[in-house]
Design goal:
Length: about 260
């Protein structure tokens, strides 16, 4: 059984889990699945193709799984998927996928704050925080534990690595490698996200290795290929080192530039 306010509408074709709370003036369309223990607050709109996990909270005015704001969309059967324990705050919007990927994905334990827009075919990992009014264009990838401060603008097809911290108001038009901070205008490498890494129990030895890898990339006077070769030949083959090398080597847009004002 779920708890449905009499002033809400839930399609008989929607699949609603146990102990789901549906507030007043909520609309839940057909072809929607909502996991047990989730709360849908007043005036939220859950449209066709939504897949919402367990114990999520959808705040007033949020719109989940509206059709993409993309002219190539032709009504194909796509989804917008939200993982367990994720919170979507007031008036945030999550569009469903297009023929490109077929789905938009937000992982588990994420916090999507008020007025955030997540466009078609984005893929967000777990434990991500996106602060108020940030706008994420189509087909952006954001890896686990990334934090985007308020008012960040992400260009389509960009890739943001894991454990990244991005300054509010940043305009992201290049890929952001893992474990770093981004600041300045225009955006630039601003050092290692040391505080975030320590909060997540990265050892001092691991943090030092990450710092050394980025010194090679940004401060040693080598081009990208030379820096990656040096890192592979001279730094221990840890998961973090390999993640950095693979991310930079696979970047299609190129990575964010360095800064002359970096301090650790």
């Amino acid at each position: 059984m779920h708890m449905q306010h009499p002033l809400s509408y839930v399609s008989p074709e929607a699949k609603i889990g146990e102990n789901v709370e549906v507030g007043p003036f909520v609309t839940i369309d057909k072809n929607v699945i909502i996991g047990e223990g989730t709360r849908i607050m007043s005036h939220a709109t859950i449209l066709e193709g939504a897949r919402i996990g367990k114990n999520c909270t959808i705040f007033p005015g949020a719109v989940i799984s509206a059709i993409p704001q993309d002219l190539k969309f032709r009504g194909e059967d796509t989804t917008a998927e939200i993982g367990d324990n994720t919170t979507v705050r007031e008036y945030a919007t999550v569009n469903r996928g297009t023929v490109s990927k077929g789905r938009t994905i937000i992982g588990k334990n994420c916090l999507i704050m008020a007025y955030v827009h997540i466009a078609h075919d984005c893929v967000l990992g777990n434990n991500i925080i996106i602060s108020n009014a940030s706008q994420i264009a189509g087909e952006v990838i954001i890896d686990d534990f990334a934090i985007l401060s308020g008012g960040v603008l992400c260009h389509q097809f960009t890739h943001i690595g894991s454990h990244v911290m991005i300054q509010g108001g940043s305009q992201i038009n290049k890929d952001i490698p893992p474990f770093i901070k981004i600041g300045h205008t225009p955006i630039a490498f601003a050092g290692i996200n040391t505080i975030g890494l320590r909060r997540r129990n990265f050892s001092d030895e691991t943090i030092s290795l990450i710092q050394e890898a980025y010194r090679c990339i940004y401060m040693a006077g080598m081009n990208t290929t030379e820096a990656l070769n040096y890192i592979e030949e001279n730094l221990p083959a840890t998961p973090e080192r390999n993640e950095i090398v693979q991310f930079v080597r696979n970047s299609e847009r190129g990575i964010v530039r360095g800064s002359k004002t970096v301090s650790e």
